[in-house]
Amino acid sequence: MKAHEMRMQARPVLQAQPPSRKLQVPNLITMSRVLLAIVFIWLLGTINTRALGAEPTAVDRLGDLSHASAALLVTAACLFIVGALSDALDGHLARKWKAESKFGRIMDPFADKFLVLGAFIMLAGPGFTSIAEGVGRIQVSAISGWMAVAMVARELLVTSIRGAYEAEGVDFSAGWSGKAKMVLQSVAVPAILLIIAFGDPRPDTNARTLLVLLAWATTIVTILSAFPYIGRALQHTVEQQRKLIQAFGSQKTRKPTASPSPKSAAKPKRNKAKGGQGKGRR
Fold first, then answer.
1. Where are the alpha helices (DSSP H) in 97-175?
2. How many structural domains is the chain composed of?
3. C-alpha–C-alpha distance, residues 161 and 169, integer Å
4. In this structure, are residues 115 and 83 in contact, taking their beta carbons and an 8 Å threshold?
5. Cβ 72 vs Cβ 46: under 8 Å
6. Any domain includes 280
7. Which of 67, 83, 113, 142 has the fewest beta carbons under 10 Å from its own?
8. Strand runs (DSSP E) across 167-228, as ranges?
9. For 202-216, how does the pLDDT look when each residue is reduced to its tens digit (9 = 90+)?
């Protein structure tokens, strides 16, 4: 009888537990994005460059990248788009299924930064450096080294601020500036790759102008997106300092209650009238 009752009590508990496989889907998508980022970065590392010719040939219409490299660029652009879409998918599923976990909160931003920052670092690397006639060495992607450094520095700063202040219970979730930065980066990387693959990245061309605009716009928006986080951090710090000053000032102005000293203690009144003789005196 007792065993039957225990089984009946345990059955609702088991039914109340959500399916574990469903909870693991967002984490699996996140880990897949990490693997995809590794393949994406490896593909960009295999790009072969040559000197930019005055007139690109029919076989090598880019003047800089071989036909095989153009195919690699298209493949890398497709992989990046899939990775960017998977970022939105795993976040949506985690919120919908209430499957948010500490593992996801750690790995999801890591996968995003790994994919995006890895892309800009590779675009600023030697694989996209070439020699143009009459110009000299140029960066075919228009992403300079300092641009990649600025983007990495922004992410390190914001991550440090968020980690420090969220530990104190302050909300540092991504605002509109952070989301705009992420959208622009997700659009700029595949656009740059496809422009290089199908356009003419030589100086004084429309494709080159578009590459420069994308590079500068992404860099400026990325840098500016850090200021709202810095402003929130400074505001919270100023409020904390103001509260501390107010608390210290209230303690300083509060005076302790004075206790009567032994000398100022009330002395007993002397009764001048002795016995019943002084009662009638005025």
1. 102-123, 145-166
2. 1
3. 13
4. yes
5. yes
6. no
7. 67
8. none
9. 888 899 999 999 999
- Report the range of poorest mean pLDDT among 6-10, 200-204, 211-215, 247-251: 6-10
Distances (CA, A) of 268 to 33, 81, 264, 278: 91, 96, 12, 19
| Domain harbouring 57, CATH code | 1.20.120.1760
Helix (H) / strand (E) element for 131: namely strand 129-132
- Asked if residue 61 belongs to a domain, the reply is yes
3-state SS, one letter per residue, for 193-207: HHHHHHCCCCCCCHH
Q: Residue 206 belongs to what domain range?
A: 16-245
Helix 176-198 with 102-123: angle, nearest 10 deg: 40
Amino acid letter, 227: F
Q: How far apart are CA 63 and CA 198, in angstroms?
A: 11
Token pair 């065993």: residue: 3
**Per-residue tokens: 278:** 């002084």
- Whether residue 165 lies inside any domain: the answer is yes
For 53-74, b/e burial (b = at least 16 CB within 10 A) is eeeeeeeeebbbbeeebbebbe
> Residue 223 class from Cβ within 10 Å (0-12 exposed, 13-18 middle, 19+ buried)?
middle
- Does any domain span residue 275? no
CA distance 74 to 44: 10
What's the predicted TM-score (pTM) here?
0.75
Give Cβ neighbours of residue 103 (< 8 Å, ≥ 6 apart). 27
